[in-house]
Amino acid sequence: MNRKVLFTPNEIEQFFENFNNEVFSFDTETTSLVYSEIKLEGISFCDGDNNAYIVLQGRDSKGNILFKNEFKKSIIDYLRGIFKKAKILIGHNIVYDLKVMHKYGIPFEHCELYCTMIADHLLDETRPHGLKDLAKQFLGVEITEYSNATFTSKFFEYAMNDALWTWQLCTLQKPLLQEQGLLKLFRDIEMPFQKVLVDMAVNGITVDKERVEKTTKEVKQKVEDLTVQMLEHIKEPYSMQVTLTGDSNVISKINFNSPAQLSDLLFTRLGLDVVERTPSGQPSVGRKTIAIYKKHPFVELLNKYKIASKLLHAFFEPMLDFVEADGKVRPSFKDTGTVTGRLSCSKPNLQQLPKVNKDMPIDTRQCFVADRGYKMVTCDFSGQELRVLTQITQEPVLIDTFNSGKDMHLATANDFFDLGIPEECLYTYNDKFDMYKDKFKNERDKAKIVNFGMAYGKGAYGFSQDFGISEEEAQKILDKYFAALPAVKKAIEECHNQVRKTGYVTSLTGRRRRFNAKEFNGNKFYPNSAFRQSFNFLIQGFSADMIRIAMTKVREMAKNYPQWGLKTIFTVHDEAGYLIKENYVNEASEKIKETFENAVNFCIPVIADIGIGDDYSESK
DNA sequence: TGGTTCAGCGCC
DNA sequence: AAAGGGCGCTGAACCA
Hints:
The protein is an alpha+beta fold. The protein contains 22 helices and 23 strands.
């Protein structure tokens, strides 16, 4: 292997004379992980024969800049030309590198991508996917923890290794992907989707900081008021403290955030009966307890306190820390964050924005706004998981319900509880549909719980808890469900057999979920949780790939309509968020909806709903 | 001081 | 004995 550290334009040009410009691995070294602050420090390359690190800026182990390459600007110009000729780019966590390149205007749109981190996640959805982890496992590289003293002198070598290892991993992974039937998923779904991830990482979402600040104060006041009211209710002494910054605090011996203190308060001091226990056997003060005692004046306050305190600490207070200098948050969407193939999201986690609660009408979604001249458009799959369940199982009853445009939950309720709703009134467009939906809201909600519970592998015990009925009665519900939908039962059994036989299941896109067998007396067996997970994976995992396909297609489609100014800004499982220039919002929305609905070919219609507004609350 | 685990709870 | 899938984030409690 020809290995070199390159500083000058001459050295660099010489290196690329003998370099395979069409297919290579590369890795960027940067100064910061915050998008607005990212600066290129250097780039390493490898084509299998040649391996180099181009130094644009040097730093010591403490991050101090040692020197700047005086040719940085012209080198980056030169590299634009190199990448322009590239056909396949190989990287580890390539979304990160592409993000950096986007910032420097280095082209990659024309390239096919190969990400060794994503490939590894497809090969094993549970292990760590760090480059060093993989180099150790697959390349037998000894990873020595470097000390600060040797860091600087070894830095260039480490940097070169990143591109080298990435290249070598790629070579090793390809046959493994092939063997396990993962190539199609990798090439046709995951890799094109990486560009969508880059879009989201670059675009970010604008936050209305004033609103966040204003609402933070409001919620803070609520938390304080409720704390005082609770203390007065239990006649606990307290005092008010005003800090130098003008904030006020309630000082007391009781901490309402402590589960231990709370359980002492409720079950000893107030004499309530314990309704649930934690896995470790402690009396629990959770949702269920609160629901049962919701009429109790103290618990009523506690309920509101919990909601307000959650909003304050898990959403409003941390939010401003995530806002970058340009007024945007850039949540980190991780493509390898879950075992099912869903994305995970953090900093901030848009997947868990509290919905408006009737006991606490605070709307977190109003904090995320469309940029000037743009509208926010969201597009979500309607009833995605049940439609996927239908496609997977090919259950005729479900197929008929969806094909005829009936409301699934009301149809289920009608069958289950013998509601006697005339069949034609189950169609969502029927005049009497809304009336029946309203009249049998309870039954429909129960049916909804059953429909989703089935997909998650819920048992008789779970349903008995949901509905406050005996396990025997709950078992009857289960039996009835499976009797009415035999193909669902069959599909679940086949899935479980697959686990028993091979230890893994494969979704419709070829994604795998593997399970570890336990051994007892020489017998291999899987815990019940593995069976629940396996069938749920078929639904959840496919749904995740379905939105990957849809978002990738929207991205491709939008290239034909540059006037829209379409920007992909986020996704939440079955939903995607876009910015569209105001004048084109209707035209674009229609095309997005169409693209989502035609993303996959099902035996039933796929329906997507559009929302349009100036902020995420309006567009939802 | 920092790390981990647990309980709890937000979302799809 | 456990008892519905998948996450991330918080504070409390505990440990070194």
